[in-house]
């Protein structure tokens, strides 16, 4: 690994899923010599998830590439101001500005954009309709794997959805963004707009919202570019 490479990678999952979805990405990064850690967000509130992420960052022995998928992008935008975080990677993720939350970013979908099949809140938590999970979240994942993801959903706290970012880390740290052009959860035009606003180096692949599961190599390639500081 080159001298200027960042060797520590911390992976942050989004809503409805947990850190186990990073397994394929984890294996590929480990094979390439990276130290990889996975955050298990409670997804109860943005503050709780930022605390969980900063605990993992604190355990690293040097600079960190902090990677977030989906709602995890809001988490890394807030947690990424930590001095140990050198670079940010957004995987089809929200990249909120100051005062924005996932809730505010999804409040006014463009006409014709797919509407994620989020069920009404139950005791302050959200789930996706299991019968529509594969189509909306994981259309290019094997049916067996998509069924498991649907049946092992993590309740996503309404408070996490509404958590507003204070000082977005992308304003002070270099960032990279992977657009998934077949995403039915976050419209690709919104992804491109957030990436451009953040000044991110952008890559784009034809993939679903679960691109980190279906195309782990594309995700790893971008993380490695970030680790090497290649725009």
TrEMBL record:
The residues covered by the AB hydrolase-1 domain are 9-221
Keyword annotations from UniProtKB, A to Z:
Hydrolase
Q: Which Pfam families match?
A: Abhydrolase_6 (PF12697)
- SUPFAM superfamilies in UniProt: alpha/beta-Hydrolases
The leader peptide range reads: none
User: Listed GO molecular functions?
Assistant: hydrolase activity
* Top-level division of the source organism's lineage: Bacteria
Among PANTHER family, the record links this protein to:
AB HYDROLASE-1 DOMAIN-CONTAINING PROTEIN-RELATED (PTHR37017), ESTERASE_LIPASE_THIOESTERASE DOMAIN-CONTAINING PROTEIN (PTHR37017:SF11)
Name of the protein described by the UniProt record? Alpha/beta hydrolase
